[in-house]
Amino acid sequence: MNYDFEYYDKHLQQTIAFRKVKDEDLELIHKWMNEDYVSPFWNLNLPIDSFKSHLEKALTDSHQSLYLGMIDGKVMSYWECYWVYGDVVEGTYSNAAYDQGVHLLIGEKAFLGKGYSLSLLRAMVRFQFQVRQTKKIIAEPDVRNEKMIHVFKKCGFKPVKQIDLPDKQGLLMFCNRHDFEDKEAAL
Questions:
Q1: Residue 56 and residue 69: Cα distance in Å, rounded?
Q2: 186 band by pLDDT with thresholds 50, 70 and 90
Q3: How far apart are the C-alpha atoms of 115 and 118, rounded to whole Å?
Q4: Pick from 25, 73, 109, 146: CA 20 to 30 A from residue 1's CA?
Q5: What is the pTM for the complete model shown?
Q6: Quick one: CA dihedral 80, 83, 85, 90, positive or negative?
Q7: What CATH number has the domain bearing residue 70?
């Protein structure tokens, strides 16, 4: 299969890969959005026709890219990578032109609670930092999502402040390239 990014994780002893979302992924992502552990944080547990419209709009939005994440070829996660410039979060801090952001969810229940989130997030941040001008990756998880906030911190994201967004109260977090690369070198 043709992946946009592939990385062998020594800790997991498995290959993490990402590929862009396609129209035919609609039903799978819709199923994930309706999971009890996803819907309170994503608020996208919509009827399939409404979700299809949402996904089609997202796929044509030039300021973001949508990915499915895989472990050893098994599709198990959903990712939204975006440019801060042009996003609703843009005015919440003094951003630079190449700052990027990330949203993620583990969709397949079999992968929950098994320690995959941190390795997946590290791989995605590594992928995003392939843009040499990017010096910062941001995240704004729902303040209630303590598990993901913990994972972001372990990856090198630092809490900055709470921010009001249209669909949630988020915790703005920054991961600077230098800090991330130092942390990766120590692994």
A1: 19
A2: confident
A3: 7
A4: 109
A5: 0.95
A6: positive
A7: 3.40.630.30
What is the rounded distance in angstroms from the CA atom of residue 39 to the CA atom of residue 101? 20
Mean pLDDT, range 10-18, rounded to an integer: 96
Query: How far is Cα 156 from Cα 185, in angstroms, rounded to an integer?
Result: 12
Could you tell me the residue range of the domain that residue 114 belongs to?
5-186
- Cβ–Cβ under 8 Å, residues 81 and 128: yes
Residue 2: predicted pLDDT: 87
Q: Token digits for 163? A: 């921010």
Helix (H) or strand (E) holding 69, with range, is strand 64-71
Query: Predicted confidence band at 131 (pLDDT cuts at 50, 70, 90)?
Result: very high
Q: Which of the residues 140, 146, 181, 184 is marked catalytic?
A: 140
Number of domains within the chain: 1
pLDDT in tens, 69-116: 999 999 999 999 999 999 999 999 999 999 999 999 999 999 999 999
Spell out the long-range contacts of 88-93 with Cβ–Cβ below 8 A and sequence spacing 24 or more: 88/165, 88/166, 89/138, 89/140, 89/163, 89/165, 89/170, 89/172, 92/140, 92/163, 92/172, 93/138, 93/160, 93/161, 93/172
Strands (E), 84-147: 100-106, 136-139
Residue 93 amino acid letter: Y
Residue 60 DSSP code: T
Q: Is 56 known to be catalytic?
A: no
Assign 116 to helix, strand or coil. Answer: helix
